[in-house]
Structure formats: structure tokens, C-alpha cells
Amino acid sequence: MTSSEPAELGATRRLLRATNIRIVAQTFFLSVFLLGLWATWTTRLGGYPVSRFLEIDLLVGVSTALATGRLYRHLAWGLSLLAITLLFGRAFCNWICPFGTLHQFAAWIFNILPLKLRRRSNRYRPLYALKYGLLAGLLILAGFGALQIGLLDPICLLSRSVSASLAPASDMGVDALAGSIEQAGVDANWTNAIRFAPNTERRVFVGSFWIGALLVVLLGMNLVIPRFFCRVLCPLGALLGFLSRFSLFRINRDVKECTDCDACLTRCEGAAEPQSVLRSAECFACMNCIDDCPEDALSYTFLGQDMKQVFTSTDLGRRKLVFSGLFGLLTFPFLKTHGLGTDSNYSPRMIRPPGSVEEGEFLSRCIKCDQCINVCPTNVLQPATTAEGGFEALWTPVMNFNIGHCQLKCNLCGEVCPTGAIRRITVAEKLGKGPHKDAGPIRLGTAFYDLGRCLPHAMEIPCVVCEEVCPVAPKAIRTVDEEIKDVFGKIVVLNKPFIVPDLCIGCGICQNECPVTDAPAVYVTAVGETRSRARGLLLEDRGRAYGS
Amino acid sequence: MRSDPAESIQSYVKAPLSRRAFVGRIAGALGIGSGATYMATAPEDSPLGIRDPTGSRRRRTDPPLRLADFSVPVPAAISPVAIGRDGEPDTRLRKALDGLGGLRHFVAPGEIVLVKPNVAFDRAAILGATTGPEILASIIRMLLVDCRAQEVRVADNPIESPADCFHKSGVRQAVERAGGRVYLPDSNAFRVVETPGAALIGAWPVFHRPLTNVDKVIGVAPAKDHNLCGASIGIKNWYGLLGGQRNRFHQNIHEIVSDLALLMRPTLSIVDGSRVLMRGGPTGGDLGDVRGTDCVVAGVDPVAIDAWCHRHLLDRTSPLPEYLRRAEEKGSGRAELAGRVKEVS
Fold it and tell me: Is residue A465 within 8 angstroms of chain B, CB to CB?
């Protein structure tokens, strides 16, 4: 705020000016976003649209439609963002986007430059066209069926960072707080309300450091360039910027009133050059410039625009466009030739959640938002490293049965998946009951024994936790019972377990409960998964073939 | 305008170290140096000393925690096991408890009571793998209304997601509607508990939060088939209080189950016979494996209860499971049933 507000402006009008309303909107949408992630938990879901931000994200809709030719479930919500953009330009970036709000906040905290340098830091730079190149490259990749927008899309990125890094960090803090409250003999039950995952052992997330580090580095870049991510990298911002050339409203400068004082640059969030010819594709409609203009030369308007004072194009020349096209074209084979994507050299740990579509299509749908990982009540869903499916599958969901297991009656991951990488399935479909009897149960993989590590098989020690916990009826783990005299001369009964692969659904509870904890003696690998014909195992289900 | 560099160096006057700064630095160096030397070399028991020549000082010894004996003596005329038959489950439960002299004999007004069901798996109640919500609601209402208990807690440490197991089995809703409070485990909920005489869990992490300040403990279990153990009835139910790496216990299942009868000496043990899992336990999953009976078993001798249920609910003609013999040896009760069971119908 500069001090030269006209005195006749009433206090109420000053209070209700656009920038203040904007701050309220930003706080509201950031809170709703976090509330959605908080509600993404088995006891809180209750039918709430917890993935709505991801569904409003137009880039998610556009890119998955490019990759698959279809628009999944609620993704038509992207039209609301399209409408907002066609009306108001890139207003989403500074009014709604929770990641944008975080960046604005970080840039505000880090704002230590003297006025002159600060104004310079808000001038446009050619570097800011990079995001359009990135967008073009990512969309070309999507067109070929390799969806990588999730790496940088702000909603996906923030959703993932909160799920896998910030939420567990917060829960860790609440744990410590609750621990000391209980130590003092006071009931700490209320702390469950402020946990992302209450009533469970502390959750872990593979690669949480790198997911968190990316977030911190991006926020830290505000020290170097204010709103670095939004101006330089954001592919959603680039898409909205491109669309904003059609928008009705924009900031307009009345050249006759303007004294070229550059006060409008002091807090220009998008580096949109309001002091001269406006770059409307960069403008976030934050309204700061209108606040800061001592001459009332700036307005946000539809009919009163001066068409000489706007540059609606995206500064992505033909040369740069060709270059980003080449980038996309080359990245596709780079991504796809790592060898882990084939049906012979795939990783045995590439185990996808129940309802997942076949791997190739999965990768054309998954946006790495990690909502499924957030909602998973047993913590079995983990962000993939590059080991399971190369860089292409980085941070997509895989099941790690050393950490948890897939609960028989749970279908929450498909419930929250915004893009249908994990289809929405019923429990009956998952278990192959009722109308899905002919299709049979969804198998995630198949369990195998490492006989050299299994206590009854190799060491004459009774065990069979695996058989006990096997949840399918009849059990997919059976035993051969033998009475032997062990090495100490004692008679023991050994129940030696084996797998009935026709019945095994790959839920992994056997692996999770195996007492040989580091490298379990019974473990699930991906082969035999029902989502893929090429990664099957059995010729036929013997139970059904024999008619039993 | 620029001055001659040679001239400016000639006229440069340095700022010398003052006496005050000199003394301050010497004092600081001596202070830090001697303080650090003291902490690093002082004998182990001196205050602020951190010397640790053997590397063993870091080991913390928490004061040992033991579970109280929650049992309540009954007059000699009362048989230690009572079976309630016929009618609604609520009526059967009341009959069984009346056979023991009534619930009010065991729980005094104002007491805090823990009810421990078996909610180990995310299963529908009708599949018999978990304690049914109806009998829990009944016992909670009796405790709150008839006995005027101050608080009724319901707790278990399931194998699958605690929130899911309690919610989808309907247990959470039934408990809360009846006025009880559900305690679910998290990272802070466990404390190491000592159990003298126990072979495997002499000191083991136990889901202790619901046991804090509790006056009475009542187990409410289903009767289930169990491949390794023979049966999972009332005593095995206490397994759900254990934390830690409990999957190791299957290497000696009968020892651990008999240890459980030492760990927990409950006020009452109740077994609901409404849905008995005859085969495919302890997880079940097939309605065809579930048998309905018309009885609720209650008693003060956990060993006798398991023995009766093994024979009459699971219909086993085989000898009693080994764990019951060991529990007898450890003094947790007697498997002898003759003249010790009262049937109320």
C-alpha cells in the first residue's frame, strides 16, 4: 500500500478493496485444499469430493484427454477453470491456486530488497517463457501417451508434497505433543483431530525426502526470483496464460493518467509489465498494481481496454516452440526405453493398487498426485522410486508389502483417484463376488515362498503366521503337516506352508506379517496380476477348471 | 576526485585490541575450555558429566510397569463358569452373568472398565472372525446403567487398519451409541509391561493407554478355529493387547497363549456363541464355516471357559489344546469342568 490513497475513499471501501478480498479468497482456498487432504482418510471420507482441486485443474483434464482420448469421471470440472480463465485471465494463479498462495506468502516473507531492486525483480524476463516450452513438451509427451505433467503441475505437486512429506511431518509433531500431554497424565484424545492419519502407527513414505526437498527448493527459489515457480516453471500457469488471450477482463493502463512512476511494479506478482504494454499472459489479476497506482491510471476492465497497451501472446517464438517440440519428441523415447516397461523385464515390485488399469495405460493416466497414497489406511501404497518403473513411473503408487498390506474390503484408492489410473471399483468387483463372479477377484500379484528363509521349511521351527492371516476363503496358503524330531531331539509339529496360486490375490498380508522381517520368506511379486494379460502366470484357474 | 592510494595507506590508523576485549577473550576461552573439559572427563555420576567409557550410559531404564490383578473373588457356592441359553443375545448374556451372581458383584459404581473385544480383522460381524457389536452394546449398557460405571473403554490392537476394523465391523458405532469410548492404538499408545513368570513376554510392549487407571477388565471374545493353536477363544483374545513384533510368537504359540493368561487376569471373561467360526480361522470369510449357537459363556476361570468352548462350541472331541495345559501349570485356572459349569436357560 502506498500512502497516497485519495482521502475521500471511505474506510469500508478501503477495507473491501479487491486485494483484501483476494487475500480472503486465497486463505479460503488454501484452507479448503488442506482440509481436503486432511479428509482423505478412511474415517473421514464420507463421500466428500476430496480430489476436487485436482479435477478442477484444467491441465489434468487436457493432458489425460490427450493421452487417453477420454475424460474420466469428474474431470469435466476443469471446465469451471476454463470459464474462470476465459472471463478473468490467469486469476486462478493468484486467487485460487493453493501453491500460488504459498509462493506469494514465501516471496512476501523473503521480501528484503530495497524498493528499486524490488521493482526491478518484478520486471518481465525472457526466462519466464520457459514454462510455455515446458508445457508444449509435456503436452506432446502426453499426446504420445506418456503423462509427466504431475512432476510440475502445481496441484499435483503440492498434493503429493503434503501427502508424502508435510502430513507425516505434521503427524510426527503431533505425536510428540500428544506423548508429552499423556506423560503429564492428561487425555490427549483431541489431538486425533489435528492428525492427518489418526489411530494408526506412524506412517512412512518412500522417498519423502526428495518429494519434500523439491517443495522446499521451489519455495526457497522465491529468494532469488519472486514467484519463481509460478513465473518460470508452472505448466498449468502456462496453459492458463495461453488461454488468457481470449479472456474478457484484464488490467488496463490509462496512458493519459500514467506518470510512469513504476509504483505498479512494486508488488506485481506475475511480472506482467503493467507499467507499459501489459503481458496479459503473465498477469495473475492480483490487483496489487491498482492498489499501488497513485494516479488511478490502472483498472481491471472489459470494455474500457486500450488495445495498444497489451501483448497477449506468450513470447514463445517459433524457434522456441520447435525446440520444445523436439524436447518432447526426444523425451518420449528416453522415458520409454529404460526396459522396465516391457512385459519381460518389468520389476517384480511393480505392484499396482487394486483397480489399476494395465501398466501402459496407467502411465498415461497417473498424475503422481499421490491421493491414493494419502488415503491408504495401511500405508502399503508408496511413491515409486526409479527402481520399479524408471523415471517415467517416479512417485506413482506401488505397493510395498513390507510396510503394509492391501486390505480385503478396502477400495479407497480408486475412490479418490481423479484420473482413473486406479479405476473406481466396488468391493464386490475387487473380490469377484456377486455380478463379478465370472471375472473372478482382482489379483495384485502372486505370493511365493523363499524356502531357505521359511522357519518350518528350513529350520524345523513352527510358524505359519502367513497361513493364519491369509484372508481369502478358502485359504490360498495351505500347509503340509509333519511331525519330526528336531535337532535338539524334541518332537515338533511343523506346518509347512505352500501357496495355491489359483486362490492367491496378492494382498501381501502374508509378507507383511512374516516374522523374517527384512527379506520375508513369503513375498508377493507382480506376476499373475489380473490387470495385465501379458503378465499373467497360470494357464487356468484349476479350482474353476475342475468345477469345484 | 580519487585520492592517491599510497597517501591513504600512509594515513591509515588501525584499531588495536583493547585491554577489556583481551581479558574478555581469555576469560571466554578459559570458561568454554574448562567447562568442556569438566563435562568430558568428570566421573560418570557427577552432575552435567557426560563421560561414557563403556557406551552403556545411554540405555534408559524405565520403571517397570505391571498390570494389576483385575479378578474379583466369588463365593464358593458360585460355579466359575456360567452358560446363558435361549432368547436374544442380550438375555443370554444377562442369564450367564446372573449365573455368576450378577454383574454388580464385579463392578462397583464409579469404576472405569475396559472391555476387550476381538476386532483383529476388517471383517463383517456375521463372518464370526470378530466380536459382534450387539453383545458389546449389551455389556456396555449393563455396565453404565446397572453398575453405574464411570467410563467404559473398548480397545483392541487389530492386525489390519484399526480405524477400518472398528468402523466397518460396526463395533465403533455400536460402542459409541451404547455410551462407551473406543481407544485405538497409535505410536504413543504402547508401554513395556513386565509379567513375572511369563516365558516369552517377561517384558513386552502392551497397548497400555486404555489400561491406564482402569479398575476392571472384561474380555468379550468370539470362539474361532485356529490352525496352529487349535482354537482362538477367550485367552487368545488378550493377544490383541500386545504390541511389538508379535508375529514371532507363532514359533511357540501355546507358550504365548498361556503367557497371556498370566499377563491379564481379567475380572470376567465372556465368549459369545452367536457365531462360531468352525473352520478357516482365525480369519474366516466364508459364511458356510460359521455356526450359530444359542449360548453366551461367562466366567471367572479363563482356562475352564476355553475348555468348555473348545468342547461345546467348536465341537472338538480331540484333547484340549496344549496351551490350556500350560496355562493350568502357570496357575491361571483349571480345565476341569465337572461340577464347575452352571447352565441358565
Answer: yes
What cell numbers appear for B289 in the block?
464355516
Q: What angle (nearest 5°) sits at the alpha carbon of residue A61, between those of residues A57 and A65?
A: 165
Q: How high is the pLDDT of residue A499?
A: 97
Angle (CA) A469 B183 B250, round 5°: 25
ipTM of the complex, rounded to two decimals: 0.85
The residue among A282, A288, A280 whose CA lies nearest residue A309 is A280
List, for residues A370-385, the tens digit of each pLDDT value: 999 999 999 999 999 9
| pLDDT confidence band for B61 (50 / 70 / 90) | low
Nearest 5°: the CA angle A273, A274, A276 is: 75
**What's residue A7's pLDDT?**
52
CB contact under 8 A, A42 and B164: yes
Q: Which residues make Cβ contacts (< 8 Å) with residue B207, sequence separation at least 6?
A: B155, B156, B157, B185, B189, B190, B240, B241, B242, B243
Distance, CA of A274 to CA of A485 (rounded, Å):
88
Burial class (CB in 10 A: 0-12, 13-18, 19+), A317: exposed
The reported pLDDT for the residue numbered A3 is 47
C-alpha cell at B111: 469404576
Number of cross-chain residue pairs from A and B with Cβ atoms under 8 Å apart: 106
Number of other CB atoms surrounding residue A309 within 10 Å: 18
Cell of B206: 502392551
**Which residues lie below 8 Å from residue B295, measured CB to CB, with a gap of 6+?**
B83, B84, B85, B92, B96, B273, B313
The structural domains of chain A, ordered by start, are 11-311 (no CATH), 337-442 (3.30.70.20), 446-525 (3.30.70)
Q: What is the largest CA-CA distance in chain A?
A: 104
Q: Is A198 on the interface with B (CB under 8 A)?
A: yes
pLDDT at position A381, please? 98
- Over pLDDT 90: what percentage of chain B? 75
Look up cell 470459464; give the residue: A83
Q: Mean pLDDT for chain A?
A: 94
**In the prediction, which pLDDT does A14 show?**
82
Counts for chain B of helices (H) and strands (E), in that order: 9, 12
Out of A179, A202, A495, closest to residue B227 by CB: A495
Alpha helices in B205-287, H assignment, sequence order: 253-263
Could you tell me the CA-to-CA distances from A46 to A415, A474, B25, B255 in Å, in that order? 11, 32, 66, 43
Residue pair B129/B121 in contact (Cβ under 8 Å)? The answer is yes
Residues of B in contact with A463 (CB under 8 A): 250-251
Beta bridge partners of A304: none
What is the spatial distance between Cα B338 and Cα A508, in angstroms, rounded to a whole number? 45
Residue of A nearest to B189 (CA): A179
Mean pLDDT, chain B, integer? 92
Q: Give the dihedral sign, CA B239/B241/B242/B246.
A: positive
What is the pLDDT at residue B54? 82
Q: Say how far apart CA B197 and CA B327 lie, in whole Å.
A: 11
Give the model confidence (pLDDT) of A124-178 as tens digits: 999 999 999 999 999 999 999 999 999 999 999 999 999 999 999 999 999 999 9
Q: Which three cell numbers stand for residue B337?
A: 469342568
Give the mean model confidence (pLDDT) for residues B83-106: 93
Please name the amino acid found at residue A448.
F
Contact A524, A508 (CB under 8 A): yes
Q: How far does A515 lie from chain B, in Å, by closest CA?
A: 5
The 10s digit of each residue's pLDDT in A349-366 is 999 999 999 999 999 999
pLDDT (0 to 100) of residue B5: 67
Of the candidates B329, B82, B115, which has an alpha carbon nearest to the alpha carbon of residue B218? B115
Q: Do A513 and B247 touch (CB under 8 A)?
A: yes
Tallying the residues shown for chain A, one arrives at 548
Phi/psi of residue B190, each to 5°?
Answer: -110, 140
A315: left (phi over 0), alpha (psi -120 to 50) or beta: left
